[in-house]
Amino acid sequence: MVRTLLLLAGFFLLRVEGQQPNNLPNNGIQLYLPYVNRTIPDYSMIYASQFYDVDQNNDANDINDALWCQSANNGTNIGVWYYPNGTEVPLIDGDFDDPSGVPEPLFSKRFSGQIALARSAGLSGYEGLYKCIIPDENGVNQTLVVGAYTDTGYNNNDGPDADPTMQFSLLSTSRLATPPVFSLSFNVSDGPPTIVSCSVNGNGITTELSRVILNGSGSATRVT
What we know:
Keywords: Signal
Helix content: under 10%
Radius of gyration: 21 Å
Shape: globular
CATH architecture of the largest domain: Sandwich
Number of strands: 15
CATH class of the largest domain: Mainly Beta
Number of domains: 2
Number of helices: 2
CATH superfamily of the largest domain: Immunoglobulins
Protein name: Ig-like domain-containing protein
CATH topology of the largest domain: Immunoglobulin-like
Structural class: mainly beta
């Protein structure tokens, strides 16, 4: 009975902490945000409620919902995360939920081919551009950058809002024929990335838009 309880306790602990992703790129490097199950572009913007130091969304694969800097180089001791001020984010060797405590508000942890940026406290006072340097499959160091902000800071810079049920029509300007009418409708989800679904005369088109930072933290943002 005691053994069964211990096994169950260990199982639930694993589910809370989570484990590393298994989606390393075949070549090059990438940023992966498992909380939304997305590979995000370089210089993307994310907010605090999108990355953690546990398996926050309790997904089927029990993936830890940190922000992951990943490489096709499957070395076991690679990658460094840097704070916006250029200092290294503390690196831990223990568990994500080490009972002796972890650094706050952020810490990093290495696995084969990837390094996690885990959030253990609020981001207030630590917003800005975080940098990951990690070698690619050729051993050449590459850099990825992500803008991490509090939820409020992100929402204050989220640009114009779109009606999720926008509809409009386009009329042909041709004077030589009866102009056909094209009906378009859009569904817009929040991001990153923002998902835009468009239906043109009943034919569906879907695209993804990700917010990225142009020329550093003081500039405007755009979608790609």
